[in-house]
Amino acid sequence: MKRLTEEEINQKLKDFEGWTYAKKALHTSFQFENFKEAFTVMTRIAFEAEAQQHHPNWGNVYNELEISLSTHDADGVTEKDFKLAQAIENIVEATN
Amino acid sequence: MKRLTEEEINQKLKDFEGWTYAKKALHTSFQFENFKEAFTVMTRIAFEAEAQQHHPNWGNVYNELEISLSTHDADGVTEKDFKLAQAIENIVEATN
Predict the structure, then answer these.
(1) What start and end residues bound the annotated signal peptide (chains A, B) (predicted)?
(2) Is the ipTM of this complex over 0.90?
(3) Across-strand partners of A58?
(4) Which of A11, B10, B12, B26 is a Cys-bridge partner for B69, taking CB atoms 3.0 to 4.6 Å apart?
């Protein structure tokens, strides 16, 4: 899987509101109603990540969820990260 | 809920292998077989945290899980954190 250039990444990020590129990874964060809502979304993301065999670097405190995506083997961001980012967006939208 | 003193915390930590006290919180980390195993444990912890109405500050990357526990209202570590820490230990032991 080829690492995307910064130009390619920034072009793609135009379709991803609330996502940024920094330190060789994509980043976003979400705020939910409470812990249960946050973990419900995390569970859906976990199943999707496992299906894609591509996993997030993520952290949670109560209703807050922070996610970073990168492709370890490529030492940067690849199409795999955008595919998972899109799935995450779809899940969050569907559960709002 | 009263904040515990550093002496009280260190005394209690003698019963918690792999846990440390720093920056007003308890910290530990676990390594599992893979993402699925890590998230399975996270799910069990999530239910327990919700039942206790006390939630972890935690992060996961693939098979690694980092957990910090503190009591926001007390600006430090309380009995609540040790109660959740004990539940986490029980869950991890039961799933190994």
Answers:
(1) none
(2) yes
(3) A67, B60
(4) B26
For an interface test with B, give the residue of A39, A68, A70 to mutate (most B CBs within 10 A). Answer: A39
Residue type, B55: H
Residue position matching structure tokens 């955008």:
A82
The pTM for the full model equals 0.96
Query: Could you tell me the two tokens for A46?
Result: 């976990």
Q: CB contact, 8 Å: A52 with chain B?
A: no
pLDDT digits (tens, 9 = 90+) for A3-58: 999 999 999 999 999 999 999 999 999 999 999 999 999 999 999 999 999 999 99
Domains parsed from chain B with CATH numbers: 6-94 (3.30.1360.20)
A75-96 burial, b for 16+ CB within 10 Å, e for fewer? ebbbebbbebbebbbebbeeee
pLDDT in tens, B12-63: 999 999 999 999 999 999 999 999 999 999 999 999 999 999 999 999 999 9
End-to-end CA distance of chain A: 33
